[in-house]
Specification:
The model has no long low-confidence stretch (mean pLDDT about 90). The chain has seven helices and four strands. It has about 170 residues and is of the alpha+beta class. It is about 40% helix and about 15% strand. It has helices at about 5, 25-40, 80-85, 90-95, 95-100, 120-135, 150-160; strands at about 5-15, 45-50, 70-75, 110-115. It has a four-stranded antiparallel beta sheet. The longest helix has 15 residues, at about 25-40.
Length: about 170
């Protein structure tokens, strides 16, 4: 089995709300959540997305602050995620993000490779984002513009484990 099929790409991003979700200025965003999630769910290469227990989405979760919502998913490849983000109906919604979300000074999106079948936790995602913010892009936490392959991530992780400085799994 190739490294590519043994690993999937996790993506986690934060959005700091300009207004509370109940504010009428957020109505267009809220109306787009379900169709965009359905689009993701049906996109080739989609594996998983975070959903709050008993809900259809994760807009009620606030692991990064009361005014911050999260988006968290896993994809079979970087190409599959890229195609969804930039080559689907999602792009139109993303172009409107400044209507609903504040501009971030710090990194707000992080990507990392996970073993196929592993569903990463929100805590893991927050740690990866903190790693990216503290150390910049690396095979363990990166962005689209500074990406690493699954092979590079596996090699970096193997080196960290043998040196006793990292976890046993990506």
């Amino acid at each position: 089995m190739s490294t590519r099929t043994r690993y999937h790409l996790a993506q986690f991003n934060l959005g700091t709300l300009r207004f509370p979700l109940g504010d009428p200025r957020m109505a267009d965003f809220l109306a787009l959540v379900e169709p965009v999630n359905a689009l993701a769910d049906g996109t080739p290469g989609f594996v998983w997305r975070l959903v709050e227990e008993g809900e259809a989405d994760a807009t009620g979760m606030r692991p990064a602050g009361e005014d911050v919502i999260v988006n968290f998913s896993v994809w079979e490849s970087a190409e599959a995620l890229w195609d969804f983000v930039y080559r689907s109906g999602h792009l139109e919604t993303m172009r409107r993000r400044r209507e609903w979300f504040q501009r971030h000074v710090d990194a707000h999106l992080v990507l990392w490779w996970v073993p196929a079948g592993h569903i990463p936790s929100v805590g893991e995602a927050m740690e990866r984002l903190a790693l990216l913010r503290a150390d910049g892009p690396s095979p363990r936490a990166f962005t689209f513009t500074s990406s690493y392959t699954a092979e590079e991530a596996a090699d970096a992780d193997a080196g960290a484990v043998s040196a006793g400085t990292g976890p046993a799994a990506l």
